[in-house]
# Entry
Amino acid sequence: SAVISQKPSRDICQRGTSLTIQCQVDSQVTMMFWYRQQPGQSLTLIATANQGSEATYESGFVIDKFPISRPNLTFSTLTVSNMSPEDSSIYLCSVVGMNTEAFFGQGTRLTVV
Amino acid sequence: QKEVEQNSGPLSVPEGAIASLNCTYSDRGSQSFFWYRQYSGKSPELIMSIYSNGDQEDGRFTAQLNKASQYVSLLIRDSQPSDSATYLCAVLSGGYQKVTFGTGTKLQVIP
# Structure
């Protein structure tokens, strides 16, 4: 299984600011995924981060709000821009393993005040 | 129609009983199916994978898949209080490595 390191683990941010979340994987992977889990809800896919090309965003998520970088096959960042309290959530980085199972980082618990 | 559906629960079972968790999915092309356990405040943890019709057993856990009915289930035998968590059903869409999650079923095992 892949080992995924995600940081920060939690943060409290002021509205209007931005936070960048980092995700490091211990092996090279083609695609990395960013999910959001709002309080009491399931996981919602934000975007797929592809190395060497722009991220693919799901319906309801846009690049201006959630810019993603993928500089190499082991690293990705997700930025939550111009934050509002509605962005308070857990953000999770994920990769798909050899048997198509998904592995997750520890998550970033974001609170916007 | 939601792509992956689960009862939100809570499902309460006494310690030692069998807990049965159910999930239906809408994409007939789905090939891979997973159950994740998520403790409060933690990230999801993969506990079972199943890829073909029938049963897949791992210790106290059994995953069951019926593609004709588009139905996946998870049985937990000899339930323990430590099994109390939210269980997420996840489905990998056919032809694309996108995993879709259900809303999760909260399981409570009563000592």
Q: What stands out?
A: The radius of gyration of chain B is 13 Å. The interface with chain A takes residues 31-32, 34, 41-46, 49, 51, 88, 90, 92, 97-104 of chain B (CB under 8 Å). The mean pLDDT of chain B is 92. Chain B has no helices and eleven strands.
